[in-house]
């Protein structure tokens, strides 16, 4: 999820008083309202003193709601004089009095994440079932086990998002929530952040291992093994950093319930670093297979088809870049349950999209088996038409699964043929 969610102090985590929507909202008949009766006692002197300095009467909300300097002064006073809970109450009361709209994005989360999660789970399960029961090897490879771990993370993330985040108010303005709800949101965001780092690392690891089943050239295999090692270290580093970002660990979410003593590192830099490294790895892992496909002596139409298959992985890179935009607000948020919703939202989408992209080559194989004339090579289509034998018995004329062929040390001159066999089954 990038930077530490709720990594700000309790005071800094609060929004600017009347800072969202108020300046464009015309207050109703507020001049007659007695705002002070609804405010916590600690906030009444703040409103009175700041209103006096701004030539506004404390009960003249028409003046209060339209005065930006007063808003800033009152906010600082609330932080200094009131508890975290009373500050939230004060902001909520003034927003309500000024007629600010009630904002809620929880429905959008459920409407997007649940269908996407279901599609992702179905695609991964189809891949695993096919590899285990219908492929030539009838077993799962190391890349399949890596994506299985990501599947568990995906399911856990769906449950946490629905029963943890949105149920406690993620996607609403922070001042509309109780301190217990804010603490719960922080706890579930903490867990989701760790799952995000682990999930994205496993996705990249799965893709690296998958490429090792395809390419037999000695140079490309050394590069791929180096990529595997880097992905493992990359994931381990950021997972550990996320777990121990606060001391004690539970200070991450308990600071909203009591003052307590603890500290958190500024993990914003880790979030940006993780995102930048992630995008760089994505581009690297798109370039590696394309560098091997271009020299192949294939018909140009086949080359385009192979390139498109690998370039589909750029879609997850696009999602990663979209997520980067949410980190801009994330790092400077005064309204975390509203602003950081976008970071959590795009993080979950990124994990699901990465899993789908990683499974696309296996889905292509299934289509080859079902529709060899359309998705297979010309040799495969001819063979199927003339012999009607099971594809698993057709030798090099079969649409070979990208992952079915075990790598062996080839003789000189075999690398290109093996790569073609594993990509197109020619």
TrEMBL record:
Transmembrane region(s): 113-134, 146-167, 187-211, 223-245, 265-284, 304-324
Signal sequence, start to end: 1-19
Keyword set, alphabetical order: Disulfide bond, Glycoprotein, GPI-anchor, Heme, Iron, Lipoprotein, Membrane, Metal-binding, Secreted, Signal, Transmembrane, Transmembrane helix
CFEM domain: residues covered: 14-129
Residue numbers binding heme: 60
Membrane topology, from the record: Lipid-anchor; GPI-anchor; Multi-pass membrane protein
Keyword hit for Glycoprotein: yes
Subcellular compartments: Membrane; Secreted
Family matches, as SMART domains: CFEM
GO cellular component: extracellular region; side of membrane
Domain of life: Eukaryota
Primary localization class, coarse: membrane
InterPro entries attached to this UniProt entry: Extracellular_membr_CFEM_dom, Rhodopsin_dom_fungi, SAT4-like
PANTHER family: EXTRACELLULAR MEMBRANE PROTEIN CFEM DOMAIN-CONTAINING PROTEIN-RELATED (PTHR33048:SF143), PTH11-LIKE INTEGRAL MEMBRANE PROTEIN (AFU_ORTHOLOGUE AFUA_5G11245) (PTHR33048)
Name of protein: Extracellular membrane protein, 8-cysteine region, CFEM
Taxonomic lineage from the root: Eukaryota, Fungi, Dikarya, Ascomycota, Pezizomycotina
